[in-house]
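Q: My collaborator sent me two sequences in one message, no labels, and asked for predicted structures for both. Can we handle them in order? The first one she listed is below.
A: Yes, handling them in the order given. First sequence, followed by its structure tokens:
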Amino acid sequence: MISNHEIDYKIFGEELQFVEIELDPQETAIAESGSFMMMEDGIQMQTIFGDGSTQQQSGGLLGKLLSAGKRLLVGESLFMTAFSNIGQGKKKVSFAAPYTGKIIVFDLQKLGGKIIAQKDAFLCAAKGVSIGIEFQRRLGTGIFGGEGFIMEKLEGDGLAFAHAGGYIVEKDLAPGEILKVDTGCVVAYTAGVDFDIEFIRGVRNWMFGGEGLFFAKMQGPGKVWLQSLPISRLAGRIFQYAPQTGGRKEEGSILGGLGNLLDGRE
């Protein structure tokens, strides 16, 4: 029996996208705080404790507290926002991506009912989708896997939307097929994929290669979603060119010095 609300959607934009969700009367979508963009008249907005899923509501007060509290471990808030169509006819509500990249659509009914994703990836979903946590089973994967011991878990049989940086690549891995990936580029994978880490061989490779010490080793069967620009990599580049101690860092010391003179900094 389908427990999730069945919603229609359309994604707009190229690099800075937003998703428009069409709700029938009495249908509801849930979203993270801060992702709301716009909605039509007739949609009611309500802050809810946790994700409002059937799994959470059936567990009593303690179950609700534990389920919602786990979300803090993956960088999400205790509360989410539900957008319900209480009017007549179809109504639309839109949610925007937080930074440049792509919105990914997960049809959980076709993906085995479960997706494991990087922290902070979740954007919005049909009501009934459960947003929880997934602990890494291996010590090495948790320490060196790029995402830590805790990742985000999306469960249910409806649509869920996530966001990641840069361009998104979806890979289908056959049973036993192995794909080695930069640890920060892993966005999500289905439950059947084995996620492990592999040490980069060769002293020169890890000392001078600039790629870190470990690969993410993804082994099928299942689907893997990869991002070309992890937010950590983007933030690192921005920080690299940010002014240090009130100075200016630009390409070329002459331009940098001239710019400081023009700004009155020297």
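Q: And the one she listed second?
A: Here it is, processed independently of the first:
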Amino acid sequence: MSWDQLISLIINGLATGMLIFLLAAGLTLIFGLMDVLNFAHGAFFAWGAYTGAWIYAGTGSFIGGILGGILAGIIIGFIMEKLTIQPVYGNPVSQILITMGVMLVLSELIKVFFGPNPVATPVPALLDGSWAIGNIIIIKYRVFIILMGLVTLTGLSLLLNKSKIGLIIRAGVSNKEMVQALGINIKQVFAMVFMLGAGLAAFGGVLLGPYSGTIQPGIGFENQLLAFIVVVIGGLGSIGGSAMAGILVGLAGSFMAFYFPEGALAVNVLLMALVLLLKPKGLFNFRG
């Protein structure tokens, strides 16, 4: 393998890892902090992708598409948390069953509103093209995704560790009754966390469109498995751990796709299984 191929694979892996991280970051908030087994999380990703692509195609504004996609995820998350999640807090079996049902419904609604066929999602003109450094070709949009992932990681770390709302969230996870006794409505706090997680997943979905070139209704199912793998490897509730695990999974997938494409997904499932056997709390089990 030449140096230019190696660097290209690394950049591809980092970009893929950051996309997975955006989906997994919301999941680790909902699953790791709130103990909610949300098997409809991929639907936020898919709806963000389709809403963002629809707005971008209609207005020509990629920023508008990003904001619209995030808003769609937040709104769907708000409705879902109120109607389906609140009644099953503390009941894992019911959470699994009801969220799987919601996932199926939301996936079918995508076909109703946007059609069953793949939708083309071009790269914005400003981010199109590449830089050439010798024989190394660096695609601009992939660098953009990496930067967005780093910005998101920094923002979430500051929110959870340096802000008052972050302190309330962490206190609520440790002792809900104590926080409630202080006059803080913990249900509202958890609803905000759920909406934040949904918005992050939708953000990842918007960015995925131009990265892959097309989107189709099944992208929620396809990427949700990778998000769960990242959350398990990184450690429940750990934003930093999800980022590092996302990068690990992205790089593993990138190199496996180059050498042995059929094993790209299998290697990540195997990695998750090894982590569960050797270190059940995750490889990077730290908060932040």
